[in-house]
Amino acid sequence: MSKSNMSNVAQPDFAEVVHLITAARQHAYQAVNTTLIELYWQVGAYISNKIKAAEWGDGVVDALAKHLATTQPNLKGFTRANLFRMRQFYETYQSDQIVAALLRQLPWTHNLIIMSRSKHAEERVFYLNMAVQEKWSSRELERQFNTALFERMVLNPVKLSTTLRETHPEALNVFKDSYVVDFLNLPQGHSEANLQQGLISKLKQFLIELGRDFCFVGSEYPVQVGKQDFAIDLLFFHRGLNALVAIELKIDRFSPSHLGQLNFYLEALDRDHKKPHENPAIGVLLCASKDDEVVEYALSRSLSPAMIAEYQTQLPDKKLLQAKLHEFYLLNLAQEDGV
């Protein structure tokens, strides 16, 4: 066999070996992380039980930290502060076995961020699930807290057309009612071209904001119908939904007339671009703002799998959203008590 032929055969074979090595490393890392989290859980349980039984006071934890530093000089992560965090870790989650299983899938840093920044149990569970699902880095996880993702998801659930709900029920867990694109640093009077070019230049950040399973296909994606040429602002493919996702950008307030253009693009994608094994294309109108009642009316009789969302160029006021969420919970509690 010639050297050129050997090279042609070897390249895909070598790629497979690289894949096996990468997968094994990831598995080994996960195994080490699971063991470490389990250790922290057990240490936290031991300290908690000793203190609850009045066998230990807080001062004993100081002594334990000093003892470990002296007898195990190469041991990292067992400072006084971290030992108390292990105790808090155990006491926070000890009564929920399902949640406890999620903890072991995340690094210690992620668990500390979620535990310290969440206000209540529902928020902790939300971020635990999302961090596992989206595989956020610690920096990305911090960003989700800064964008008040939990508050936004509870207060403003995503609004989908009836067709999209029926054809893709899992879309409720994929799309958001609003997307924060503060990383674009857009001026107040930005144009649609500014928005589109910014999203392309910061594609990595935008993909993180969209979600893990989104894959970029192209911008100004050409669509020809009859003898006319059209272009879709942004085209993605979602692996979980197994469908093309067309995103049309609007720098003004949502208008029902916008849906006509989007529906036209979805029809063209389904007829001329969709693969036989793929589901019908999904459309997203990403607008500067929207009236939720207008959106509800516009989508109620739409026959296309479409949704309306808005983009925010600045980080939301987290304190304001938390106050609204508190009112939301109080209102729900009052309604439950009144039943």
Key features of this structure:
339 residues; alpha/beta; six-stranded mixed β-sheet; 6 strands; 57% helix
Please state how the strands of the largest beta sheet are arranged side by side.
1-6-5-4-3-2
Q: How big a fraction of the residues is strand?
A: 15-25%
| Total DSSP E strands | 6
| Major β-sheet profile | 6 strands, mixed
Shape: globular
Gyration radius, in Å = 25 Å
Q: Which consecutive residue ranges, at least 5 long each, have pLDDT under 50?
A: none
Order of helices and strands: HHHHHHHHHEHHEEEHEHEH
Q: Which structural class do the helices and strands define?
A: alpha/beta
Percent range for helical residues?
55-70%
Could you provide a short overview of the structure?
By secondary structure, the protein is an alpha/beta fold. The chain contains 14 helices and six strands. Helices cover 57% and strands 15% of the residues.
Structure description:
With about 350 residues, the chain is α/β, with parallel strands linked by helices. Helix content is about 55%, strand content about 15%. It contains 14 helices and six strands. A six-stranded mixed β-sheet has the order 1-6-5-4-3-2. Helix 13 (about 290-300) links the parallel strand 5 (about 280-290) and strand 6. The mean pLDDT is about 90.
